[in-house]
Amino acid sequence: MATLKEKRTCGQRCEDFGHFVWNSDNGTFMGRTPVKWVYISLYYVAFYAVMTGLFSLAIFVLMYTLSPYTPDYHDRLESPGVMVWPNTYGEEIVEITYNTSNKKSWTKMCTILKNFLQPYNETKQQLLNNHTCTKGKYYFQKTFTAPHHTKWSCPFTENMLGPCSGIEDPTFGYNCSMPCVVIKMNRVINFLPSNMTSVAPYVNCTVLSGSENVDEIEYFPQNGTMDLSYFPYYGKLAQPNYVNPLVAVKFSLIKKKQAKIQCRVVSDVISYENIHDPYEGKVIFSLNVQS
Ligand SMILES: *[C@@H]1O[C@H](CO)[C@@H](O)[C@H](O)[C@H]1NC(C)=O
Ligand SMILES: *[C@@H]1O[C@H](CO)[C@@H](O)[C@H](O)[C@H]1NC(C)=O
Ligand SMILES: *[C@@H]1O[C@H](CO)[C@@H](O)[C@H](O)[C@H]1NC(C)=O
Ligand SMILES: *[C@@H]1O[C@H](CO)[C@@H](O)[C@H](O)[C@H]1NC(C)=O
Ligand SMILES: *[C@@H]1O[C@H](CO)[C@@H](O)[C@H](O)[C@H]1NC(C)=O
Ligand SMILES: *[C@@H]1O[C@H](CO)[C@@H](O)[C@H](O)[C@H]1NC(C)=O
Ligand SMILES: *[C@@H]1O[C@H](CO)[C@@H](O)[C@H](O)[C@H]1NC(C)=O
Fold it and tell me: Which NCBIfam families does the record match to this protein (predicted)?
């Protein structure tokens, strides 16, 4: 038995739609009476008002409990990374290559170091961090006693780097085969680089290859220590003028004048054998002096 399909013209369809939009027979608009539409609108207004309220409350509670000075969550126990300057990258590691007979090649290294040391300028530090810190122990600060509701940062000046400060020798040893490098440990908020009783962390550089080419390794400040008074770091907002303590290392190269070096920040709480992060606790670089 064949079903009889009613063929409807376009005009009829339009009329149907018109009926749907405004049906004068039972007084509905889009299938609902105006009163129902008012109820529906009121329902949605109330619904969104409540949602907005909940959302605002959640944000408010979050903001209220967050300290603006420190991040609340760390995804793991952080061990700081270590970096070296001049930071002239080769294919994999930092490659410090220069030619003593080519002034342009070694002044490039001096410029990098000079720029890096700019925040450590003595007059700058006297101005920004005019504060005396007790060496040899952590500088815990519970209150904000420095100007502008901040915490004090201990000054670190370039002259602490001795012959590697660029003051007496503006060539940093790059006019011959006694180059200086500067080692910096990244900041980690609230990180204490050794447990309370032990000594300050220090930089220890070892020659990985070409040890016969390295005559002497000198550290500045003495013993390569990073004084405890620079820790803990409370964050950029709390300590806007913080400068990382640095250690300069001067190498005396002889013979073939090339070597691969690893500099490690040694402390009982700094790990350096993380295969996923080769810069954790240490930095590896090569020195190559041509002439
Ligand atoms: C520090 O900076 C001042 C002014 O910018 C400059 O005159 C002075 O020579 C700098 N000091 C050093 C040791 O570079
Ligand atoms: C550093 O502070 C002392 C007193 O705390 C003050 O006499 C001196 O002028 C200050 N120096 C600078 C460079 O602001
Ligand atoms: C390198 O520079 C220093 C300081 O300017 C100077 O005393 C030394 O003689 C220079 N060495 C060479 C090999 O030019
Ligand atoms: C410091 O760390 C060392 C090595 O991890 C540990 O043997 C020592 O007990 C620690 N000391 C304190 C006071 O936590
Ligand atoms: C530096 O590291 C080397 C190799 O790990 C080690 O033999 C040496 O004793 C260390 N020096 C210091 C002062 O810790
Ligand atoms: C450097 O280390 C030596 C030997 O470990 C020690 O006698 C000396 O006091 C240390 N110097 C500083 C400034 O820490
Ligand atoms: C170093 O520079 C000098 C002068 O520019 C040049 O003669 C020499 O070949 C360079 N040495 C190397 C290893 O490139």
Answer: Na_K_ATPase_bet
Helix, strand, coil fractions of the chain, as percent rounded to 5: 30, 25, 45
Q: Looking at ligand 6, which residue's alpha carbon is closest to its atom 7?
A: 223
- Helical segments of the chain, H only: 10-21, 34-65, 103-117, 122-128
- Peptide bond preceding 278 in cis form (omega within 30 of 0): no
pTM for the predicted model, two decimal places? 0.78
The arithmetic mean of pLDDT across residues 190-212, rounded, is 89
Atom of ligand 5 nearest to the CA of 223: 13
Q: Whose CA is nearest to atom 11 of ligand 7?
A: 291
Q: What digits encode the pLDDT tens for the residues 136-160?
A: 989 999 999 999 999 999 999 999 9
When pLDDT is cut at 50, 70 and 90, the band that residue 78 belongs to is: confident
Q: Position of tokens 């490098």?
A: 181
- The ligand 6 site (C-beta within 6 Å) comprises 222-223, 225
Whose CA is closest to atom 10 on ligand 6? Answer: 223
